Amino acid sequence: MSQIPNSLHGQDIANILHPYTNAVRHQEVGPIVIERGEGIRVYDDTGKDYIEAMAGLWSVAVGFSEPRLVEAATRQLNALPYYHTFTHKSNEPSIRLAERLVAMSPARLSKVFFTNSGSEANDTVVKLLWYYNNAMGRPERKKIISRRRAYHGITVASGSLTGLPVNQQDFDLPIAGVRHLTCPHFYREGREGETEEAFAKRLADEFEALVLAEGPETIAGFIGEPLMAAGGVVPPPATYWQKMQAVCRKYGIMLVADEVITGFGRLGRTFGSDYYGIDPDIMVVSKQLTSSYQPLAAVLISDELFEGVAANSARIGMFGHGFTTSGHPVATAVALANLDIIEERGLVANAAAMGEILQKGLASYADHPLVGEVRGAGLIGAIELVSDKAGKTPFDPVGKAGRYLFERGHEHGLIIRAIGDTIAFCPPLIITQSDVADMLARFGRALDDTATYLRAGA
Question: Is the pLDDT of residue 91 over 80?
């Protein structure tokens, strides 16, 4: 990555510890300084344009220059720039947004708790499950089951639910009471001769066996992304969610759908739960809720969970959990405007239509010698690079090819995500057919550069 010869470059190196970054390497190469956005593109401080093929961080639905969201924030800042929702206080945007989320979400969900991020939301889920089971006289029912390669956040509790080593190594995670199942990645975890449905049955059997080994009376919840994203873009195998949900219902385990990335149209349906036929007891949303113009997340819960929590709050005297900016009026006002735009412009339908084009375009690279698997659904997709197609052999070290392709993407005006040697795509929902073609063409040039680099024996 080329260095940026200006004062901001040096200031950034001196003062900022960047998330998800090799801090030592950052001291050497510095940042790309992004100055403005327009539609699906962003521009750095030299004027160079990039197609933002990751929608920022899987999160910008309406693009990087939507004036209606700026106007909604400005109106609310002028009227009520901040107020809290503690001790019987509220504000109109948070009331209206909660009502709207309940109306559009799966039927089981009836109440909303607001946080600032998906990490805080999943942290809240853990606390709600513990609190609820204590209230119901089941203090032993506290364990939560997640999956390897899952991503549910980076706080102490949500980082424990996450199943990625980089988020746990040397942070002393996971905490006690969290268990992880096999990642539902058929390409990597399926056995020779096994069908997707047989693979799904094996994973559900593994889930049930773990429940029985731990004791069903000790398991509070099972959490999963409808489609895994940050773990490498992993769509579940056929019938997976039906089988996993059946185990939850059999043993009274609450099912948590982490829709932080899949919510609000990413898969061409309003929620990933709609796409895969999931009926959750708890659903977590964020990112595309405001197109990340404001930090906001929400936990939607069932009546059953709410009633237990509410009764316990009366017994104790209050529900002792919340954040200074829970239900922030500016963030919730922006979310309402964002949801209006998604609905008015038919962006869920656009995601379905453009998603078909994206998936076909990605599949056109399947025969490339570096490509092991192409996968995805809707407007989220991935290409996994391998050193040997027949053997599905990863590069040594893992990430060598992905990192190079990621950096070549910048040279060709494309921002993608390298997850090891898997290249992820998750463009804004406003993307057009010509945009998809341009994005894939830029990727193709970066992929060819990578092939040349690797053939040279790098």
Answer: yes
In this structure, are residues 305 and 112 in contact, taking their beta carbons and an 8 Å threshold?
no
**Mean pLDDT, residues 196-221 taken together:** 98
Query: Could you say which of 3.40.640.10, 3.40.50.1000, 3.15.10.40, 3.40.1160.10 is the CATH number of the domain covering 69-344?
Result: 3.40.640.10
Task: Tell me if the pTM is above 0.85.
Answer: yes
pLDDT of residue 10: 62
Among 383, 384, 376, residue whose Cα is nearest residue 357? 376
How far is residue 110's CA from residue 105's CA, in Å, rounded to a whole number?
A: 9
What is the spatial distance between Cα 33 and Cα 94, in angstroms, rounded to a whole number?
A: 34
Question: Do 248 and 398 touch, CB atoms closer than 8 A?
Answer: no
Name the pairing type of β-strands 143-147 and 109-115.
unpaired
- The pLDDT assigned to 15 comes to 86
What tens digit of pLDDT does each residue of 408-424 get?
Answer: 999 999 999 999 999 99
Confidence of residue 13 (pLDDT cuts 50, 70, 90): confident
Is the model's pLDDT at 214 over the cut of 60? yes
CA distance 395 to 450: 13
Q: Which residues pair with 221 in a beta bridge?
A: 144, 254
Say which amino acid occupies 345. R
| CB neighbour class for 111 (10 Å; exposed up to 12, middle 13-18, buried from 19) | middle
DSSP string, 215-266: -GGGEEEEEE-SSB-TTT-BPPPTTHHHHHHHHHHHTTPEEEEE-TTTTTTT
CATH 3.90.1150.10 maps onto the chain at 32-62+346-455
Contact predicate 232/372, CB 8 Å = no
Question: What is residue 180's DSSP assignment?
Answer: E
Backbone angles phi, psi at 82, to 5 degrees: -160, 140
Average pLDDT value for residue range 278-294? 98
Rounded Cα distance, 158 and 156, in Å: 6
Query: What is the fold of 32-62+346-455?
Result: Aspartate Aminotransferase, domain 1 (3.90.1150)
CB distance 257 to 272 below 8 Å: yes
The pLDDT of residue 14? 73
Where are the CATH 3.40.640.10 domain residues in the chain? 69-344
- Tell me: pLDDT of 55 over 60: yes
